[in-house]
Amino acid sequence: MAKIKFPFTLGVASGEPAPDGVILWTRLAPDPLNGGGMPKSAFDVRWELAEDDTFLKLTASGTTRAQPAGAHSVHVKVSGLRSSSVYFYRFRVEGHTSRVGRTKTAPAPTSTAPLRIAVASCQRYEHGHFTAYKHLAAENPDVILHLGDYIYEYGKPADPALGRYVRPLKDSAAACSTLAAYRERYALYRLDPDLQAAHAAAPWLTIPDDHEVVNNYGKTVDLKRRKAAYQANYEHLPYRVKPGADAMQFSRWRPLGKVVDLLLADVRQYRTPGDMLGPAQTTWLLDRLKGSTARWTVLAQPLFFAPRNPPSTDSWDAYPASRSKILQAAPDSFVVLSGDVHNAWAAELDRGVEFVATAITSAPPAVRDDALERNPHLGFFDGHRGYLVANASMDEFTVDYRTVAYVDRPGAPVSTAASFRAVGNKLERIDL
After folding, report:
1. Which residues pair with 50 in a beta bridge?
2. How far apart are CA 225 and CA 177, in angstroms?
3. Is 42 exposed, middle or buried (0-12, 13-18, 19+ CB in 10 A)?
4. What is the CA radius of gyration of the chain?
5. Would you call 428 exposed, middle or buried from its count of C-beta atoms within 10 A (0-12, 13-18, 19+)?
6. Is the previous residue joined to 310 through a cis bond, with omega within 30 degrees of 0?
7. Dist CA 421 CA 432 (whole Å)
8. How many CB atoms sit inside 10 A of residue 37's CB?
9. How far apart are CA 248 and CA 242, in angstroms?
10. By C-alpha distance, which of 145, 252, 260, 203 is closest to 21?
11. Residue 338: pLDDT above 90?
12. Which residue from 330, 347, 333 is spatially nearest to 427, judged by alpha carbons?
């Protein structure tokens, strides 16, 4: 068998942190934009996890199989680790060694230690450079939360002037609908060095929105297309759970000590007219909300949650009954983290508050000049690209809106547009 070229072109990642372990990820792809470039056979991949980045204090190691049916991606479940601890990891195959990744386990159930959570969403490749991720990686977060639109399925338009094409797709690129096409689109994104840096900096938790499959999809989407999209999504991110026949379990509970109960909700897969989450997920979520005992109960999901005037049809405004059930079940210290709308917002809810992350790159929609005036419960708006950094402790929950000056070229500096503290269902602005 011919020796393979360097296969770790897409970097490394970790995710789904638990108090005793994490998931480690990589994919073997010497030629990622041309089918991956691997032989149609399985390969043994060695993984190593250590307390130091020189791997002199090796904690755990082993070998896993990278199978062609999974695009030679690997998901290693590591357990037996210490809680709230930093580890370093890497992969080896056929004489090649990957870059070193940094990860961190979740706090123990009794922990009251503060947490730092970075929040990102909406990273359309064509619309700009992922410079925000370079800065996010330097924030030293305990976990990175991605709220959807990790890729965009769109093809390249006949007239590029119709879009904001800072980084064009291939001339032959069509809208993704097959497994091969979704795989190539993920590979294109994962080649970006700033995105790779963010994945290597901390463990991720991801919840897809719509563009991972197709714009504005719901339960009635073409299941063959959805199956392909979910498979490619799994192959390129560090999930604990594999996709099923044509579905995938995205909703999950991730407790982070006594400080945060993190609930990730899927707003696409089960959506039908009048019901955002579907009966089973609704029951699960309401039970978790009612049973939460953490200092802060945080709902992480893609869509704008608070009502807006005028209302949006692709948000919780179109599902007021579903939203009402959540607010009735939510505890007093309730926080919603959202994305999707490509601008930064903050909102006061009937119970709790909402912080909306802007896009990493995706172009923003037009916003009325009187948007805040028409919506007195909305306490903040900013139109730059960027991300959020949330700091949660037993005493307070604060959020910094971090923004980059531009995305049409690399090297943008980062700044803080505003900072807020959650006080019940009120927003308290923190002077910078």
Report:
1. 58, 88
2. 6
3. middle
4. 21
5. middle
6. yes
7. 12
8. 16
9. 7
10. 203
11. yes
12. 347
Backbone φ and ψ for 131, nearest 5 degrees, come out as -60, -30
Give me the half-sphere count of Cα atoms (radius 13 Å) on the Cβ side of residue 12. Answer: 23
* CA-to-CA separations, 19 to 98, 104, 208, 297, 391, in angstroms, rounded: 25, 9, 24, 18, 19
CA–CA separation, 278 and 331 (whole Å): 22
Asked whether the beta carbons of 27 and 233 are under 8 A apart, the reply is no
Percent of the chain with pLDDT over 70: 98
For residue 171, what are the CA distances in angstroms to 140, 153, 179, 240, 383?
A: 38, 15, 19, 35, 30
Question: Which pair of tokens denotes residue 277?
Answer: 């989450």
Closest CA to 187 of 208, 171, 207, 173: 173
**Which 3-state string (H, E, C) describes 262-280?**
EEECCCCCCCECCECCCHH
Give kind and range of the element (H or E) at residue 234.
Answer: helix 223-235
All structural domains of the chain, each given as residue ranges with its CATH number in brackets, are 1-106 (2.60.40.380), 110-430 (3.60.21.70)
Q: What is the pTM of this model?
A: 0.97
pLDDT digits (tens, 9 = 90+) for 235-262: 999 999 999 888 999 999 999 999 999 9
d(CA 7, CA 26): 10
